Amino acid sequence: MEAVLRREIARHNDETGRRSDGAGGRSYRQVFEDGLDRRVIRKATTRHLARAGLIYKPATVDRHGRVQLDTWTYGDPGSQEALLRHRGKRILVGRNPDDFSVPAVAYDEDGRLIWDRIEPVIAGDYESADGIRTATRNRKAVRDAARRWPSSRAGRGRTA
User: Fold this and answer.
1) Shortest CA distance to 117 belongs to which of 69, 61, 75, 56?
2) Is residue 3 one of the residues assigned to a domain?
3) What's the rounded Cα separation, in Å, for the pair 139 and 132?
């Protein structure tokens, strides 16, 4: 069965005289191969891959040239001048989800790089995105347990 499917798909792709946009009478296989020949090969650099792995959140630059994300504050004296140009404006700040102590990167609203090594100046309560998620789950579990607690204690001898 698979051999028949492969043969028929190959026959279909090799048929010339295609009238679809861009085919110009060529077969689908010819269109595909011509597209591969003209394709510009682009490879992601180490920097591209590192920035793709960041989590990005909008933040507003304060009057001191700093931004706050969750309970962390970023913006050391080295990045302060660049950030102060965007004071009061929303920017996009990217940071490592596994380690918030690693310097952050910031982009303006048009996607232009503002600064790429914004050091944290005030450490927050959690070291990573996983820490925030765990704390949120724990808080929810405590709330749920507290809601159930009075009803489960009813009729056990002590009254308040």
Assistant:
1) 75
2) no
3) 11
- Evaluate whether residue 9 is within a structural domain: no
Query: Which CATH number does the domain housing residue 115 bear?
Result: 2.40.50.100
Structural domain count, the chain: 1
Rg (C-alpha) for the chain, rounded Å, is 28
Mean pLDDT of the chain: 87
Three-class HEC string of 5-55 = HHHHHHHHHHCCCCCCCCCCCCCHHHHHHHHHHHCCCCCCCHHHHHHHCCE
**Nearest of 57, 62, 123 to residue 92 by alpha carbon:** 57
Structural domain harbouring 118: 57-148
Statement: residue 156 has pLDDT above 80: no
Give the type of residue at 135. A
Residue 81 domain flag: yes
Stated pTM of the model: 0.59
